[in-house]
Amino acid sequence: MDIQKRIDKAVDWLRQQVQESGTRGILVGVSGGIDSAVVANLIKRAFPQNSLGVILPIKSCERDIIDGELVAKKAQIKTITIDLSQQHSDVLNRTLKVLKDNNLFEEKNQRITDANLRARLRMSTLYAIANQLNYLVAGTDNAAEVFTGYFTKYGDGGVDIMPIATLKKYEVYQWGKALGVPSEVLEKEPSAGLWEGQTDEKEMGTSYSYIDAYLDGKEVPQRDKEIIERLHKASAHKRSTPPFPEI
Ligand SMILES: Nc1ncnc2c1ncn2[C@@H]1O[C@H](COP(=O)(O)OP(=O)(O)OC[C@H]2O[C@@H]([n+]3cccc(C(=O)O)c3)[C@H](O)[C@@H]2O)[C@@H](O)[C@H]1O
Ligand SMILES: Nc1ncnc2c1ncn2[C@@H]1O[C@H](COP(=O)(O)OP(=O)(O)OP(=O)(O)O)[C@@H](O)[C@H]1O
Ligand SMILES: [Mg+2]
């Protein structure tokens, strides 16, 4: 099926999800990256009036905020910005202080604690807006991220619908081009933006092109295959509901 037809199908699917859920529209967090740019365009097409982009800076770099605004402008989607930097510092510093006071602080886990709290504060804020507007929260995870578990559990992974979860990363770029995502965003290296200098590929230790190839059933170097399979196995808990005992 050609890309335009698949895009139309995704747009129809979004309308169906809203109709079946009894909600009125859809919102998405807009980071200035390609995944959220594609989702923002899809929800705008599905709901020209009832779609919302939300820019949620947390000590974010200027470029991400500018790119987020650029994406929103090009997609002509209504957008609001809520800076959560202060709230993030408050929760993080208070929590770490109490942990330190109780001899429970782990220095080596500080960066990931800080990073995942960002994703979860964004999730909480998106749901506050969803409650206000009776909208669904759209996720932006693609097939490579879902397979490797490269997302924060109940953070960017905490969503109602996942419109691009079956697209490999190269397909996200193809759709982005077809939807008119600005070239600045298409050309940017994928980053979760959770700390300075973070890039997805550096952190995962493999590349999106190898993960995509693996998902397409193609050969990938043994080293990368092992990394992909290890990430997939370790993140199984993120793709299922919490376990409970038969008691
Ligand atoms: N086997 C198991 N069964 C049930 N639960 C299990 C578990 N193992 C860990 N857990 C729980 O899961 C937690 C670990 O998961 P989680 O909190 O998600 O943390 P974790 O997977 O360590 O970190 C999230 C990763 O996703 C990346 N990320 C986040 C957000 C956005 C993006 C992006 O691409 O934009 C990427 C981020 O850079 C980082 O590498 C543990 O603290 C524990 O609570
Ligand atoms: N500053 C932000 N404002 C609003 N939402 C954000 C922000 N940062 C991250 N998010 C949300 O978290 C999601 C996960 O980030 P991720 O980096 O995987 O996607 P992306 O930035 O859209 O694309 P890329 O992978 O190319 O960087 C984003 O798509 C977006 O929905
Ligand atoms: Mg990003």
From TrEMBL:
One of its GO terms (cellular component) is cytoplasm. InterPro entries: NAD/GMP_synthase, NAD_synthase, NH(3)-dep_NAD(+)_synth, Rossmann-like_a/b/a_fold. It comes from the Bacteria. Deamido-NAD(+) binds at residues 120, 153, 160, 237-238. Residues 7-242 form the NAD/GMP synthase domain. Keywords: ATP-binding, Ligase, Magnesium, Metal-binding, NAD, Nucleotide-binding. GO terms for molecular function: ATP binding; glutaminase activity; metal ion binding; NAD+ synthase (glutamine-hydrolyzing) activity; NAD+ synthase activity. ATP binds at residues 29-36, 140, 169, 191. CDD domains: NAD_synthase. GO terms for biological process: NAD+ biosynthetic process. Pathway: Cofactor biosynthesis; NAD(+) biosynthesis; NAD(+) from deamido-NAD(+) (ammonia route): step 1/1. Its EC number is 6.3.1.5. It catalyses: deamido-NAD(+) + NH4(+) + ATP = AMP + diphosphate + NAD(+) + H(+). Catalyzes the ATP-dependent amidation of deamido-NAD to form NAD. Uses ammonia as a nitrogen source. HAMAP family: NadE_ammonia_dep (MF_00193). Homodimer. This is NH(3)-dependent NAD(+) synthetase. It comes from Alkaliphilus pronyensis.
